[in-house]
Amino acid sequence: MPIQEQKKSKSKSQSQQTEMILKAEDVTVSYDDFAALRGVYMEVPKNRVTALIGPSGCGKSTLLRCFNRLNDLIDGCKVKGKVIYRNKNLYADNIDAVEVRRRIGMVFQNPNPFPKSIYENIAYGARINGYKDNMDELVEKSLRQAAIWDEVKDKLKQSGLSLSGGQQQRLCIARAIALKPDVVLMDEPCSSLDPVSTSKVEDLIHELKEEYTIIIVTHNMQQATRVADMTAFFNAEEGDSGNRFGYLVEYDNTDKIFENPQEESTQKYVSGHFG
Question: Which of 64, 86, 163, 249 would you label with 268, given CA atoms 20 to 30 Å apart?
Answer without folding.
Answer: 64
